[in-house]
Amino acid sequence: MVANKEPIFKGMTKYKWFIFIVALLGWSMASMDLNLYSINLPLIMSTYHISIALTGIITALIFLGATIVVWIVGPFLDTYGRKSVWQYSLLTMAIFTGFTIFATTVVILIIIRVLSDGPSYIEFPTGITIANEEMPAKLRGSLYGWIQAGFPLGYFLATLIAITVVPRFPLDLGWKIAFLIGVVPILLVVIMRHWVKEPERSKIAIKARNLAKNGHLDEAKEITKNIR
Question: Quick one: what percent of the chain has pLDDT higher than 70?
């Protein structure tokens, strides 16, 4: 359990710094997953014998599917809480990142990547929402920028995995193994998040929504008026 007592630096407790670290690492893992696809795209084209034009269409379909996943899952943040969505999105991303090794056809690849990339894009807004709800107001802008730095860090990790793993296997298999190896750091972050607590703001918002839904509007307004 990460202690949440006295501030240790910049008004931040150990727990708040822990939240910042797991948010940064989570976005890094999402970026790593997304960029493993782009870095290995030439090998993917070779494996499935597809043209540049068809590759563009496939990538567009993956992004469209990921967008739909984000639209569907996004509202769950306010319904089921931040932590649950945060954990399940990252765990889903890990599962389907690993499942890329089973992409024997282009259609299967599209389905797997949609189910991986969708949770990847949920990661950043969920992580930054939790971080913002936990951080002191004066630091939210800085921490937002620092967490955003997880994207180039993820690109670096994807490149590192690609250049160290892919050459060790036949090219049609190497890029799939790279995705499989990418599951390991993602799962480590999932484990770290076991100690994340649902933000108080989120608990209050969910309680207020349930009260309002049941007709207790005045009570709902009362418990939310001090949220900042």
Answer: 82
Instruction: Count other C-beta atoms under 10 Å from residue 179's C-beta.
Output: 27
Within 8 A by CB and 6+ apart from 199, the residues are 82, 130, 133, 134
What is the Cα–Cα distance from 34 to 75, expressed in whole angstroms? 23
Burial group, residue 157, by CB count within 10 angstroms (0-12, 13-18, 19+): buried
Q: How far is CA 94 from CA 68, 135, 147, 168, 179, in A?
A: 19, 27, 20, 23, 9
The pLDDT value recorded for residue 221 is 62
Q: Distance (Å, rounded) from C-alpha 176 to C-alpha 172?
A: 8
> 4 pLDDT exceeds 60?
no
pTM of the model: 0.81
Residue 38: count other Cβ atoms within 10 Å of its Cβ.
11
Instruction: Write out 93-156 in H/E/C secondary structure.
Output: HHHHHHHHHHCCCHHHHHHHHHHHHHHHHHHHHHHHHHHHHHCCHHHHHHHHHHHHCHHHHHHH
Tell me the sheet residues that pair with 9. 12
Q: Tell me how crowded residue 217 is: count the other CB atoms within 10 A of its CB.
A: 12
For 109-158, write each residue's pLDDT tens digit. Answer: 999 999 999 888 888 788 888 887 777 777 777 877 888 899 999 999 99
